[in-house]
Design brief:
- Its main location: membrane.
- It holds the Pfam family Cation_ATPase.
- With 701 residues, the chain is an alpha+beta fold.
- The chain folds into 4 domains: 159 residues, Calcium-transporting ATPase, cytoplasmic transduction domain A; 136 residues, no CATH class; 156 residues, Rossmann fold; 185 residues, Calcium-transporting ATPase, cytoplasmic domain N, CATH 3.40.1110.
- 43% of the residues lie in helices and 22% in strands.
- The strands form 4 sheets. Strands 10, 11, 12, 15, 16, 17, 18, 19, 20 and 21 form a 10-stranded mixed sheet that branches. Strands 8-27-26-25-9-22-24-23 form an 8-stranded mixed sheet, sandwiched between helices.
- A hairpin with a 2-residue loop joins strand 1 and strand 2.
- It is elongated and about 115 Å long.
- The N and C termini lie far apart (88 Å).
Length: 701
């Protein structure tokens, strides 16, 4: 097995031959043993964990802490036990706080590991077995079905209506249709490799069989785990300033104490008395109350933000948030609602607009021309009936978000029919449409929804206000133009069609889906949050830049960016791959939208902004965001939709997943540096007053 091909670009048979496996029987037992020894267990890489003692000792490494520690010891030497107790208590409190935060950070990889599939069904030696997922090796044939978590990376060799939720890897919530046909472009982006399945993604529909190509650390999820382990947490601006303060205090105290010691000796003061005076001055020069005041100030800021839906997990992050100059925001669910919604469409010869968000029936359908619309219920029947989703008792969607958008459209149109479904052909990524047959009062009705180009090929008629008309070439061209018009607005377009059929159609719904009548085209999108545009404008007014980062297509990302008021270039992950770090740093400030990005791209974007001197905040919800959240000056996780891994990696968690909440948190946090600075100033007068009193010559001199 020398050399790794682009697995998505080779046939299933070629992939099997390369891995010396068998397409039907799988690996032989002796092959499994040899490969397990060569590749190791199928688990994520582990680094040697720090001991708790080492973690605790590392909390005493900052210069200000060492200065305070030294001051406390010196205070004890000269008999000032009160100062010693206060200083050492403050140092110990801050050390324990830092220890707790680092201990929590060490749990990130453990959380990621806990998400992996424990068991897998495989074909080995011609038979089916269920084995621990850790024992999988390249060349194994794994069977997957709805509800399974994919145990490793692999090339699909069979698929039947297979759909997989890849949001943990790509950040996009729309499920991905999968098939086993080979792709010819070797540079196909990760999110578009429809014949591959990836570790830790979830099968939502259908079933399939995959040939394992990568295990453990070499999987895409393994690379993310590696990035998480290798990405250092950024030091906050407050930590940098306090270290600088510690250096200055130590230097000033050393110089002044040296001078006082020399003066005392020159005046003939006894050596022991001069040393005690100098030591007292060293203690007096240190504002021992400063760490306590800063800690209390940050804690108050943390409490205030928590009351408004922003839970800060590290005290120093409160001040960092106030220093933020750039916010890198995930699109889905943060800048947008993460709810697919019908926005516009074409039916019975007219364009229509749809208002209202969410999956209920709130909203209306109106003609874009301003004219009165004909009754659209017959045209939109397929939206409500050719649909496997439904609303739960609490009004939440149960099922696929795209079908939820169509269900909502049907409710807005006033469709109340619940004709029994007597046959169906589920959506399949190979066919790109779904068929259902219903027993209506006037006979059997076949309903179809799917990709416009595929559905239109099966249509012979088009429904207009005055009845069905033959689907001439002129009508085909006009409908293709309508499709392109909606697609140009970053809308996902679906076609609806129907036909009246007889009992024979029940045996083969796919074959019966011919000579259909096209009834409607529907444009869907995940709309921007209502407050997001105003929040971005508020950021701009406050001197904070906003970058949108998404795994979505360039056209969709650019359109959403325009709706949100993001001005600047749009760059894809493929274009980022052609830039080195210096080139990216030169351009990063001019780029407003990053599309089709992979996890490593997000880390590079944050690093490039930091290289330009920015304090960068990063929002995210998926495992794919965790490394970038850890690298950013402040990582912000989504509390509702965020994964456990992301919440562990982040410094702040939003309880409402709303971008506007980030902006409000920054606004509140910007009061913290002012308060902290006032605290620093107020700490100096008493400290240096005490210093001056101690440095006055004793009466005996």
């Amino acid at each position: 097995m020398t050399g790794q091909p682009s697995w998505h670009g080779v046939t299933a048979q070629s992939a099997c031959e390369h891995l010396q496996s068998h397409l039907h029987d799988g690996l032989a037992p002796d092959q499994v043993t040899a490969r397990l020894a060569a590749h190791g267990p199928n688990r994520l890489p582990e680094k040697k964990a720090k001991s708790k003692a080492r973690m605790l000792l590392e909390q005493f490494q900052s210069l200000l802490t060492l200065v305070l520690l030294g001051a406390g010891i010196l205070a004890g030497i000269i008999g000032d036990t009160t100062d010693m107790a206060v200083i050492l208590s403050v140092v110990l409190f801050n050390a324990l706080l830092g220890f707790h935060q680092e201990y929590r950070a060490e749990r990130i990889l453990e959380t990621l590991k806990s998400m992996l599939a424990p068991q897998s069904r495989v074909r080995r030696g011609g038979g089916k077995q269920e084995i621990p997922a850790e024992q999988l090796v390249p060349g194994d044939l794994v069977l997957i079905e709805a509800g399974d978590r994919v145990p490793a990376d692999g090339r699909l060799v069979a698929s039947h209506g297979l759909e997989i939720d890849e949001s943990s890897l790509t950040g996009e919530s729309v499920v991905v249709g999968k098939d086993h046909s080979n792709l010819h472009d070797a540079d196909t982006p990760l999110a578009e490799r429809s014949n591959l399945a990836f570790m830790n993604t979830v099968v939502t529909r259908g079933r399939g069989e995959m040939l394992i190509t990568q295990t453990g650390a070499t999987t895409e999820m393994g690379r993310i785990a590696g990035m998480l382990a290798d990405t250092p947490e950024s030091r906050t601006p407050l930590q940098e300033r306090l270290d600088g303060l510690g250096r200055r205090l130590a230097l000033i105290a050393a110089v002044v104490v040296g001078i006082i010691l020399a003066v005392g000796l020159l005046r003939g003061q006894p050596w022991g008395e001069s040393v005690l005076t100098a030591v007292a001055l060293a203690v007096a020069a240190i504002p021992e109350g400063l760490p306590a005041v800063v800690t209390v100030t940050l804690a108050i800021g943390m409490y205030r933000m928590a009351r408004h839906g922003a839970i800060v997990k590290r005290l120093a992050a409160v001040e960092t948030l106030g220093s933020t100059t750039i916010i890198c925001s995930d699109k889905t669910g943060t800048l947008t609602l993460n709810q697919m919604t019908a926005r516009t469409g074409w039916a019975l010869g007219q364009r229509f607009a749809v208002s209202g968000d969410g999956y209920g029936g709130q909203g209306a359908i109106t003609a874009i021309s301003g004219e009165t619309l004909p009754d659209l219920r017959p045209a939109l029947l397929a939206a409500g009936l050719c649909n496997d989703s439904h609303l739960g008792a609490d009004g939440t969607l149960v099922g696929d978000p795209t079908e939820g958008a169509l269900l909502s459209l049907a409710l807005k149109a006033g469709i109340t029919e619940h004709w029994p479904r007597v046959a169906e052909m589920p959506f399949d990524s190979a066919h790109k449409f779904m068929v259902t047959i219903h027993r209506a009062p006037d006979g059997l009705r076949l309903l179809v929804k799917g990709a416009p180009d595929v559905v239109m090929e099966r249509c012979g008629f088009v429904a207009l206000a005055d009845g069905d008309h033959a689907l001439t070439q002129q009508w085909r061209d006009q409908l293709a133009a309508e499709n392109e018009h909606m697609a140009g607005q970053a809308l996902r377009v679906l076609a609806l069609a129907e036909a009246r059929v007889d009992e024979a159609a029940l045996a083969d719904p796919l074959a019966a889906a011919r000579a259909l009548t096209l009834t409607a085209l529907v444009g869907l999108m995940d709309p921007p949050r209502p407050a997001a545009r105003d929040a971005i404008a508020a950021c701009r007014a406050a001197g904070i830049g906003v970058k949108m980062i998404t795994g979505d297509h360039r056209i969709t990302a650019a359109a959403i960016g325009r709706l949100l008021g993001l001005d600047g270039e749009v760059v894809t992950g493929a274009e980022l791959d052609r830039m080195d770090d210096a080139q990216l740093a030169d351009r990063v400030e001019d780029i407003a939208v990053f599309a089709r990005v992979a996890p490593e791209h997000k880390v590079r974007i944050v690093a490039a902004l930091q290289a330009k001197g920015h304090v960068a905040a990063m929002t995210g919800d998926g495992v794919n965001d965790a490394a970038a959240l850890k690298r950013a000056d402040i990582g912000v996780a989504m509390g509702r939709t965020g994964s456990d891994v992301t919440r562990e990696a982040a410094a702040m968690v939003l309880t409402d997943d709303d971008f506007a909440s980030v902006v409000r948190a920054v606004r509140r946090a910007r009061t913290i540096p002012t308060t902290s600075s006032s605290s620093c100033v107020s700490n100096y007068p008493p400290t240096w007053g005490h210093f001056c009193r101690c440095s006055s010559p004793p009466s005996s001199v």
